[in-house]
What does this fold into?
Amino acid sequence: MTATERQDNARSAGAGWEPELEELQRRREFAARMGGEEGVARQHAQGKLTVRERIDKLADPGTFREFMGLVGSATYTDGKLESFTPNAAVNGFCQVDGRKVVLNGGDFTVRGGSGGSAHGGLGMELSASIRALEWRVPYIRLLDAAGGSVRSFEDMGRTYLPDGNSFTAPDIKLLRAVPVISAVLGSVAGLPAVNACIAHFNVMVKGTSQLFPGGPPVVKAALGYDVTKEELGGWEMHTSRSGVIDNLAESEAEALGMIRTFLTYLPGNVWEMAPRAECGDAPDRREERLLNIIPRNRRRAYNARHIVDDVVDRDSFFEIAPGYGRARITGLARLNGYPVGVMANNPLFGASTDVAAGEKVMRLIQLCDTFHIPMISFADEPGFMVGMESERAGIERAGARLVMVTCDSQMPWATVVVNQLYGVAGQCQHRPTGMFQRYAWPSANWGSMHIEGGTAAAYRREIEAAPDPEAKLAEIEARLKAMASPFLTAEATGQDIIDPRDTRRLLCEFVEEAQPILRSQLGQTSMPYHP
Amino acid sequence: MQGRVIEVLVAAGDSVAAGDDLVVIEAMKMELPVQSPAAGRVKSVSVVVGDQVLDGTVLVVLA
It folds into this structure.
């Protein structure tokens, strides 16, 4: 009789698998303690939740199904389990508002989140990112980890080449397959800081989260100056200056709420249609305010957010990156229940597309294209931002990329020209292919160039040669302005000019007509999503 | 964004409603009305026409 047969016999004689189940239970209990009482207390003292508390808040009750929860390091006495420390990551499936997602949460209480997961070992189970990719469900990272640590050199007895791309590659594929969201919920450095941006949407928490490739001690060593982690990589840096993080939350609960809200506009993957919500808002609702929202005094600014709010379904607008590139409002909303991307030039911040606003627009176009969501744009574009600062930021290259993303997109797109439309930035409100509709309000005015400013350049010789150059300039400007009525353009091109109060009805109809087109475009699109 | 105050529409003691224009600032060739975020009484006005103002400059204090 072999040993196995003897054991089998012994078990069938009465001794069951209960001891193993007890050990499984003990291991799970150890894992639930995360990095231990002290680490958990420190986490709470910093005003942060633990990874398991975060998951409890985000997941629908009772839906979390952990995987790879038994990975970690154990100690044994006489072959019996003595203690167990889990890896610095908690992974699993769960439902968010009834829809399945994969969660990957860093656990700062275990070694500061470092060495979060063993990757690529022989026989290793599928990673969270690969499961999200293959199961075709959204992927959510709850980042709270410091990235690589030199301590791992001591564990390994050697150093290693930075080959992390072997396990980052699936994260890149995810961007073209399923919604990916990163929440930065602590001080995040190294790969986790980059992972914050390998996403379609990201959010950080005021005061408790920062991100950088290397923190203050690394800055001190490399550049010799002192800086706090909040100055270096806090919310002011990243939600308004760098644009690395889209949205700012006042608390972790608010950040998790934003993740939930963002997901409501998106399909589970690119092979599915975005979910339509119930809509109690009449598609033919007319807002009187829209009639005169554009001041006749063209120099007087107005709040473009009012246009968005008046047109889309009541309270359906979710703004993305409100603190960055403020010349353009970007976000997601609904029209008659259907999700749409929305953008609007914002005259309160100059309206001119600068590099920051352009980056936001490119990401929104790519988001809509990837997930088959129609684009709605309210255009009031004076042209690309001019001046020294804009040149330093590289406005022409950003402009070239914006033209490319615009032309390469395929989702149905409607632009409403509410006021100005000038130059190449104005050109980026038009796509010459696919389902594209443009409406103009009676307040609209357009051209390759502004008449003021443009006249002096184009008629320079004629103006200089005139006995009274100023009078000549005024005369030519008056001549050109007489041609600026949108009705003259409409006579020649068929441009539709509409009553602003009909905008909602027309756009609701457009989005309804777009549905069969969107269905025919399901799947992965030819344009990649660039983070 | 930097701008110049071109109109001051309220004075200390005035009652204002939410959405009322308080001050108009000119920047980038555009006139930007600054509106009252809430109803109240103007306690003080910190700028005069012609002042250059920056993001964060206090314009009007409401009581």
